[in-house]
Amino acid sequence: MKIAGGIGLVYNNLILLGRRVDLWEGKPIPFGGYWSIFGGTCNNKENPIICAIRELEEETQIKVQLHEVIYTKPLQNKDSIFHVYFSELSEQLNPILNEEHTEYGWFTIDDLHRFPYDIDDRLVDIIQEYKKSKYDS
Hints:
There is one protein chain. This protein has helices at residues 48-60, 121-135; strands spanning 2-11, 14-20, 23-24, 27-28, 35-36, 38-41, 69-76, 80-88, 101-108. The protein is of the alpha+beta class. It has one domain (2-135): Nucleoside Triphosphate Pyrophosphohydrolase (Alpha-Beta Complex), CATH 3.90.79.10. Strands 1, 2, 5, 6, 7, 8 and 9 form a 7-stranded mixed sheet that branches. Strands 3-4 form a two-stranded antiparallel ribbon.
């Protein structure tokens, strides 16, 4: 079972998403071409939150501190568990993407259920649950 972690960066009612490449080293990747938060697979015995922070910086050049990260829940697939975290930003940042993503965008959280591109609906549910717990309480 692969363990992975990712961080959704939130600014007001917006979330930063990136479009994953379709192929990695010539091979199809899980959820290739899908829009997602930034993250990836944990290294050997790496804690998922540390993995998520590392992957975010590798993929976007955006660094967050451990105390700025909020855990929500895991998203389980057949052969992996993706731990979903969030971090609130004080300003809207523009990432510098590495080769794992083709584009990025800031999207309104409330409109994600009508997202016109490929995205995992379970991730949308987690993002909207986070927003509701954070802002609508």
